[in-house]
Design brief:
By secondary structure, the chain is α+β, with helices and mostly antiparallel strands. The protein has helices at residues 2-29, 34-63, 80-84, 97-102, 117-133, 188-198, 219-223; strands spanning 107-112, 138-143, 168-172, 178-183. Helix 1 packs antiparallel against helix 2 (34-63). The protein starts with a helix and ends with a helix.
């Protein structure tokens, strides 16, 4: 489109300019004043260049659309955790699902896409989950665009748990059992309650801070 417009513009204006130059040269032979001829040529070239700049500016405005992506729309503007949670450590995940299940670690898995306003808004919650439980569990964000379509998935594959909606949160206990599986803006408190059960922490009603009933293998990790 850009080149078509330019071609049409030049084909219309250049012949006119050439004719003017030819006429002026002819007039010079007819003893016109040389100074007037040069001034006329310079004026015509200035007008031509001004038109070129105007056409270029108009085409730039039409072709180059400014980025207007934000947290309240479904446009892509980068990784949601980096842009909206200020956290570049969440992706790629430190461990994949098969490894975490094999090691019997608690898992927080979240399905997302970068061009979803709901996922953008939920990125802060995922960051908070990592802040509280990132040392003692595996935080595994899964971009659903990376899930290859298959007729059947194994329980060790993220696609086995994906419901088709984002954001989606899945929490596993140390036995690999799903203790929470919800879509939408799942509150941090619901995730916290499940992890408190997994880590044998005092319930929220008894303690807002993460405190244990008794010492176990995760106490040193949660205390860091």
């Amino acid at each position: 489109m850009f080149f078509l417009v330019w071609s049409a513009f030049l084909s219309t204006n250049l012949p006119k300019l050439s004719i003017k130059v030819e006429r002026l040269v002819l007039m010079r032979s007819m003893k016109w004043d040389l100074k007037n001829i040069l001034q006329s040529i310079i004026t015509d070239w200035r007008q031509f260049l001004s038109k070129c700049l105007l056409v270029t500016a108009c085409l730039y405005c039409l072709i180059i659309q400014p980025a207007q992506a934000g947290i309240s729309d479904d446009r892509y503007d980068g990784n949601i955790f980096v842009v909206y949670a200020g956290n570049g450590s969440l992706v790629p995940a430190k461990a994949n699902l098969p490894t975490a299940l094999k090691e019997h670690k608690p898992i927080f898995m979240m399905f997302y896409v970068d061009d979803s306003k709901d996922c953008k808004q939920y990125a802060i919650t995922v960051n908070r989950v990592q802040e509280f439980y990132g040392r003692a569990s595996e935080i595994i964000p899964v971009d659903v665009d990376t899930i290859l379509p298959k007729d059947k998935y194994e329980p060790t594959e993220p696609g086995y748990y994906y419901s088709g909606k984002v954001p989606q949160v899945v929490v596993f206990n140390t036995d690999g059992k799903v203790v929470l599986n919800k879509t939408g803006q799942v509150p941090f408190e619901q995730i916290d309650d499940k992890f408190r059960e997994v880590f044998d922490l005092l319930p929220r009603t008894e303690s807002v801070e993460l405190k244990r009933r008794s010492f176990n293998e995760f106490s040193s990790e949660l205390a860091k």
